[in-house]
Inverse folding.
């Protein structure tokens, strides 16, 4: 399906998401973003997709639309169905399963593809997709091992993540919020946010050959209408405002974090902070 076709479907796809009951405008912008991504990838009708880190199914719904009634999406996430707020993963999956896309989707929560019990035949999938989920990984080593694990199962890899290199000054607040969260995680204080291991596009490109993949395409992805900058800034300030957990950090790290939080408070706007751009990488 071409870009115009998938984008035209975005409003109906967004309306089918449980999160649309709480934030319809945000859900629509997230769905449009993913529709633009998939329309630029070679994921056509009748194909099979393994999606890692599916979360609430924002990308899952778009992939299911792209593969059509004869295609299949296996959507995997290590989190349990009870994870998430104000809508849990299980609630969102149940809404999608009950809709017209349901027969095309196989949700598998609480599933770690590194577990020996999780296995698929060689070339079981035409595509494997990771969309805005790789910073959730505990380490780059875990991401490398995961990409190596799925390598025999799929012919093509489609990957997208936030780009740490800001394109303009108004993206610096989002960048700083991401880096602060990454430093806190690296120091041993594990939170429940979206950012555990932020890494650059260049870091991914260095990692892919170690996992058996050969990159054959890369490009920028527009994120102008997304609200993730505001969300990550709020998450960072909430975390930094909790004195007891920060007190467990090594003192030198704690002071660096607090100084960076001071800068973040100074440069962040109350709302409408510009999100970092994203990038897309394809590999064989």
């Amino acid at each position: 399906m071409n870009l115009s076709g998938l984008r035209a479907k975005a409003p109906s796809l967004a309306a089918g998401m449980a999160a649309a009951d709480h934030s319809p405008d945000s859900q629509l912008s997230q769905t449009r973003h993913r529709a633009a991504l998939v329309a630029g990838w070679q994921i056509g009708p009748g194909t099979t997709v393994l999606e890692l880190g599916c979360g609430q199914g924002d990308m899952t719904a778009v992939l299911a639309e792209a593969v059509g009634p004869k295609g299949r999406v296996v959507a995997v996430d290590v989190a349990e169905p009870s994870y998430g707020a104000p809508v849990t993963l299980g609630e969102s999956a149940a809404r999608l399963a009950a809709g017209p896309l349901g027969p095309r989707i196989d949700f598998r929560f609480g599933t770690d593809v590194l577990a020996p019990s999780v296995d698929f035949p060689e070339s079981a999938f035409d595509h494997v997709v990771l969309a805005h989920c790789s910073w959730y990984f505990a380490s780059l080593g875990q991401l490398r091992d995961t990409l190596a694990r799925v390598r025999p199962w799929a012919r093509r890899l489609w990957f997208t993540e936030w780009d740490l290199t800001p394109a303009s000054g108004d993206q610096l607040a989002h960048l700083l919020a991401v880096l602060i969260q990454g430093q806190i995680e690296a120091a041993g204080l594990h939170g429940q946010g979206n950012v555990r291991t932020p890494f650059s596009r260049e870091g991914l490109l260095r990692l892919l050959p170690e996992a058996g993949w050969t990159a054959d395409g890369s490009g920028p992805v527009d994120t102008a209408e997304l609200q993730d900058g505001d969300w990550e800034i709020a998450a960072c300030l909430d975390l930094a405002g909790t004195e007891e957990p920060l007190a467990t950090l090594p003192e030198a790290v704690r002071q660096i974090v607090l100084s960076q939080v001071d800068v973040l408070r100074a440069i962040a706007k109350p709302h409408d902070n510009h999100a970092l751009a994203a990038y897309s990488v394809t590999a064989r």
User: Anything to note?
Assistant: The chain has a mean pLDDT of 94. The radius of gyration is 19 Å. The chain has ten helices and seven strands.
